[in-house]
UniProtKB/TrEMBL annotation:
It comes from the Bacteria. This is Tetratricopeptide repeat protein. TPR repeats lie at residues 489-522. Pfam families: ANAPC3, TPR_16. The keyword Cytoplasm does not apply. Residues 1-22 form the signal peptide. Keywords: Signal, TPR repeat. SMART domains: TPR.
């Protein structure tokens, strides 16, 4: 409540005129009471505060934003943004941050948040614009980092490159305190678009004027590695290490360059230096082992891992990598021993998956199934996941009958296992047996009416099949799922789709926009484009399709939509 009290006092002290001074009577030019901190305003702020304390972050956000706009108070919009970040509702967060930025256009935090939200949507051009707005305020906008992330995401670098070039050509651009960051970003994008000479010229100029910048040599080394030029990478990393002694990034780049040159001993010297400077850092040792393993230097990777697997508290990832090494050396039984020692955690299931696949590829299917059966007994908490894993492997081997038998047998023993019921239901759906799917999902819902996943899956299926006499039932199921998980983009997509099926595209649109903002995938893109087309927003629909064609390598629903509505093609 102290935070609320501060905010309330701040609102009460807001000047109502831009020409007011500290000695003015605050009531002399006060607006009518309907715009002041009257009972309604106080009640709204108190309701927002209490809603946030109860975890109703959407209500809290909307309350703070309403009062922020009423009082033109940026601190209230900031508080609303904080609440929105806990809501898992991307559109709500975007609304809150936009309000904050409108009230405090020179504030750094909302600009960074707006850029981050654009990145989540995959809208790299907008993300760059927000970063450039930061740069124009004299802030370090991390443009080079943005360029690297864009390339990793597979986005088209050409529009970003051209925008950065235009930014660099502004009068006085070179006087910016972080001008080098924009130059580095542009060079990265030029190199990615085949303009290596332009990129080299920019970097050469930076080397003459700003040789003291570690980021310059970091970029040169990274670009050289990507261009398969390890000698140039080694030289740049060495220069960077001279500028920034002990910098682990340059030591790592040197190790990578030496590995590419086949100089394993030299690479190990650099990694040993890294480890000496980070004694006890297990994650670093594991990451370095992965680097050697990726390049096929199994002995070097093993030397890094052995101290970990023999320690008092060995990390599971070490056993996992040791299993991969043994598997690469065709030591199947040794690999199996290592994989079995991977404790529950992020590597647990993939270790069992690799072990079982390894046995199957070794023509030991029975051993693989026995291994998984024993693992289910050893790890009862992961029982359902291990059954699902075996079902997946049997399917990959073309043994669908055995997969069905396993699933049915385990469900006869644990008839209310929601994970296995859902798995069987989805397998039935894939085969077109909707009745069987509905039986299993119905059993889940009957036993657990709070299973949002099952509610949504059944509701969406009925809506997608467009079963006219069951669309209301589909709507009710999906709305119940949304009440349970209001921030789930998949459920928002289902809501939008069922409203569209019910003939209400206007109501469908905001849900699909919110879903696509939170989880941009090809299925939601297809739904959004179709609804925009139905609303005769043809240009917007084509833009969504164009983005989807660029973003997704596999896009069956987009392709199917284009077959039905060829005019949607950009």
């Amino acid at each position: 409540m102290l935070g609320l009290a501060a905010l309330l006092s701040g609102c009460q002290g807001l000047a109502t005129s831009p020409f007011a001074t500290a000695t003015d009577d605050p009531l002399a030019t006060a607006p009518p009471i309907e715009r002041g901190l009257d009972a309604e305003g106080l009640a709204t702020l108190l309701t927002a505060e209490f809603a946030g304390q109860r975890g109703d972050y959407r209500r809290a956000t909307l309350g703070y934003l309403a009062m922020a706009e009423r009082y033109q108070a940026a601190p209230l919009a900031e508080r609303g943004t904080l609440a929105a970040r806990f809501s898992n509702d991307i559109l709500l967060l975007d609304q809150a941050v936009s309000t904050w930025h409108a009230l405090a256009p020179d504030a750094e935090a909302p600009l960074r948040l707006l850029s981050g939200l654009a990145l989540q949507r995959g809208d790299w051009t907008t993300a760059l614009e927000w970063r450039l707005a930061l740069a124009q305020q004299g802030q370090h906008a991390e443009l080079a980092l943005l360029a690297e992330l864009a390339l990793e995401a597979g986005t088209d670098p050409l529009p970003l490159r051209e925008r950065l070039r235009a930014y660099l050509e502004r009068p006085g651009a070179a006087a910016h305190p972080h001008h080098h960051d924009a130059v580095l970003a542009t060079a990265i994008l030029e190199a990615a678009t085949g303009q290596s000479l332009q990129a080299e010229r920019r970097l050469d100029q930076l080397a003459r004027d700003h040789a003291e910048l570690p980021a310059l040599w970091l970029t040169r080394a990274q670009l050289a590695l990507e261009a398969d030029n390890p000698r140039q990478a080694r030289e740049a990393a060495s220069r960077g290490l001279a500028v920034s002694p002990g910098d682990p990034r340059f030591l790592l780049l040197l190790a990578q360059a030496e590995l590419m040159l086949g100089n394993v001993d030299a690479a190990e010297r650099h990694t040993s230096t890294l480890l000496d400077e980070h004694i006890g850092n297990q994650e670093l040792r594991i990451s370095l082992a992965g680097l050697y393993l990726e390049d096929g230097y199994l002995d070097a990777a093993r030397r890094l891992l052995l101290p970990l697997v023999s320690s008092d508290e060995p990390p599971p990832a070490a056993f996992y990598l040791m299993g991969i090494i043994a598997e690469e050396e065709d030591e199947v039984d040794n690999a199996l021993l290592y994989y079995r020692q991977v404790a529950p955690g992020s590597d647990f299931l993939r270790a069992r998956l690799r072990a079982a696949r390894m046995l199957i590829e070794d023509d030991r299917l029975l051993d693989a199934r026995a291994f998984l059966r024993i693992e289910r007994l050893r790890h009862e908490a992961r029982f359902s996941e291990l059954v699902a894993l075996e079902v997946e492997l049997l399917g990959e081997a073309g043994l669908e009958a055995e997969a069905d038998a396993l699933l049915n047998r385990e469900l006869s023993r644990t008839p209310n296992d929601e994970t296995l019921l859902y798995l069987r239901g989805m397998r039935s759906w894939e085969r077109g047996d909707i009745e069987a799917m509905e039986r299993d999902l119905g059993r889940i819902i009957e036993a657990n009416p709070y299973n949002a996943t099952a509610l949504n899956a059944l509701g969406y299926t009925l809506a997608d099949l467009n079963v006219e006499d069951r669309l209301e039932e589909a709507r009710e199921l999906i709305e119940r799922a949304h009440e349970l998980e209001p921030g789930n983009p998949a459920i928002m997509d289902s809501l939008g789709w069922v409203y569209y099926r019910l003939g209400d595209p206007e109501r469908a649109l905001p849900w699909l926009e919110r879903a696509y903002a939170g989880m941009p995938d090809q299925e939601i893109a297809a739904h959004l484009a179709e609804v925009l087309w139905a609303l005769e927003r043809h240009d917007d629909a084509r833009k969504v399709v164009e983005q989807a064609l660029q973003r997704f390598d596999e896009r069956p629903l987009i392709d199917e939509l284009l077959e039905r509505i060829p005019e949607l093609a950009p």
